[in-house]
Amino acid sequence: MKIYVPMDSAAKALGADEVAAAIVAEAARRGLAVELVRNGTRGMIWLEPLVEVDRGDGRQAFGPVTPADVPALLDGTLQGLGPVDSIPFFARQTRLTFARCGVIDPLSLRDYEAHGGLVGLRRALGMTSAEIVQEMTDSGLRGRGGAGFPTGIKWNTVLGAKAAQKYIVCNADEGDSGTFADRMIMEGDPFTLIEGMVIAGIGVGATRGYVFLRSEYPDAIKVMTAAVQIARDAGLLGPDILGSGRAFDIEVRVGAGAYVCGEETSLLNALEGKRGVVRAKPPLPALEGFLGRPTVVNNVISLATVPVIFEKGAAHYADFGLGRSRGTVTLQIAGNVARGGLFETAFGMSLGELVMDVAGGTATGRPVKAVQVGGPLGAYMPVSKFDTALGYEDFDAAGGLIGHAGLVVFDDTTDMLGMARFAMEFCAVESCGKCTPCRVGAVRGVETIDRIARGDAAAVPILTDLCETMKLGSLCALGGFTPFPVMSALTHFPDDFATRKEAAE
Ligand SMILES: Cc1cc2nc3c(=O)[nH]c(=O)nc-3n(C[C@H](O)[C@H](O)[C@H](O)COP(=O)(O)O)c2cc1C
Ligand code: SF4
Predict the structure, then answer these.
(1) What is the DSSP letter of 366?
(2) Alpha carbons 320 and 300: distance in angstroms, whole number
(3) Is residue 8 within 8 Å of 19, Cβ to Cβ?
(4) pLDDT one-digit tens code per residue, 360-412
(5) Strand, coil or helix: 104
(6) Phi, psi of 315 (to 5 degrees)
(7) Which protein residue's CA is at the shortest distance from atom 18 of ligand 1?
């Protein structure tokens, strides 16, 4: 009997380690031969710890499982969920980037290869650099870190730059509220990120890569560090990748914990051992990045999507999607929601279908009031915007942004003035201090919202003005995008700002 218990940190937070220990103990007590596999998560967090049992006739899912359920689980009398593929939340997905996550043992290279791993890299090793970069361009992949910049164009700039040394930097800082896709893939399928970075390296002519991983992810740090060593020992990293004569190696570097260190230039400063302050652009990191050398800075999901593009071909990937948003989006559903987790689907589904139908509305059962899409710099989308299709251009037209595709759901008890204040306060706390509109503006923003809360209606146009200044005058998107949550709260939920005035009168 083979039993899968996730070692993903979300599953562990919900008791997966205790369930695994109970399975080992109970199997020993019964003298039962059980092979325990610690896999990644399938992404259905409300069902964690989700345990799968394979008695030789396929994997059957159970969840959430507690240690007290283990005897019945081994007896075969515990009520199950059927195969994971039959659970509607999972069945509706198109899993390309996350195809292996939760299926394989994350640290088994053999398991990885048995499920399509390294097919993409082997194909890329037979291509020229220009062909590799063209394949990326043809796939239509846009950066999943937030800005949605076409990955092929970025790689092409680095390929064309003349330098003795180039770098691939993976942005694993994942600071957006309600996001966890980077962590999940690093904990559940780390070789896919490594393979993606190797392909990027041979594509642009870089021989060194860094994973800048936030300190708040101790499990991901452990898994990535172990995976890099396993990959090196197997000749997947090092001076002679899979006997090709091409060199590439990776180092995992741990960030010290600042939201702004996810911004690429600030990240590069931190990686160089400097203070995490934003650099003015130009020069672009693609031309003068890490240590002043041409550098590809890509998000974890962008790089982890590279192997499937090379495995199945750019045309296959580009076949999914909507308009200029090609492929799949790895949505992370969180907050006050009935079914939270990772949902990978082709761009194009509406926000309403995702929140109400797929995720089942709020966990409290109360009406949804707003969904913040795109992290702390994303707009609060009201229910009236639920017909907006998930796509970069569609969201832009609706006054929102997709960002890293995190969604945080709020019910009708939420005070949107409080949320606007939180956005300004977050900006004030996390500001790197380099430019005035953000450093001073965010502090004034908090004060101005407090005035509105005290019933001072004259402060409303001041807030609007301030947001305009921050939007136009900030050096990076921390100060420049904070007006999105603030203004969306003010625009879509004016009552939450007006009632304070009435209360004060
Ligand atoms: C304040 C701020 C925080 C950011 N945080 C992250 C982050 O945690 N992870 C990430 O990949 N990109 C983050 N970005 C975006 C990066 O600057 C950059 O666009 C991205 O890493 C490029 O990779 P991509 O093209 O693959 O998306 C952030 C940007 C800003 C302005
Ligand atoms: S907007 Fe804020 S975080 Fe960005 S450079 Fe200016 S002060 Fe720094």
Answers:
(1) S
(2) 20
(3) no
(4) 999 999 999 999 999 999 999 999 999 999 999 999 999 999 999 999 999 99
(5) coil
(6) -65, -35
(7) 264
Site to probe by mutation for ligand 1, drawn from 137, 171, 484 as the one with most ligand atoms within 8 Å of Cβ, is 171
Verify whether ligand 1 is closer than 6 Å to residue 430 (CB atom). Answer: no
Ligand 2 pocket test, pick from 261, 263, 430, 434 with the greatest ligand atom count within 8 Å of Cβ, gives 434
Mean pLDDT of 260-275: 97
CA of residue 477 to ligand 2 center, whole Å: 7
Q: Is 260 in the pocket of ligand 2 (CB under 6 A)?
A: yes
Task: Decide: 174 and 183 in contact? Cβ < 8 Å.
Answer: yes
Going by C-beta distance under 8 Å and a sequence separation of 6 or more, which residues neighbour residue 500? 417, 452, 453, 454, 455
Say which ligand is closest to the CA of 480: 2
Bridge pairing between strands 295-299 and 167-172: parallel
Predicted TM-score of the model (pTM):
0.97
Structure tokens at 414: 């939420």
For the CA of 480, the nearest atom of ligand 2: 1
Helix 416-430 with 494-504: angle, nearest 10 deg: 100
3-state percent helix, strand, coil for the chain, nearest multiple of 5: 50, 15, 35
Per-residue pLDDT of 350-363, as tens digits, reads: 999 999 999 999 99
- The dihedral through the CA atoms of 179, 21, 218, 98 has a sign that is negative
476 lines ligand 2 (CB under 6 A): yes
* CB-based contact 74:27 (threshold 8 Å): yes
Identity of residue 319: D
Atom number, ligand 1, closest to the C-alpha of residue 154 = 25
Q: Is the CB of 171 under 6 A from ligand 1?
A: yes
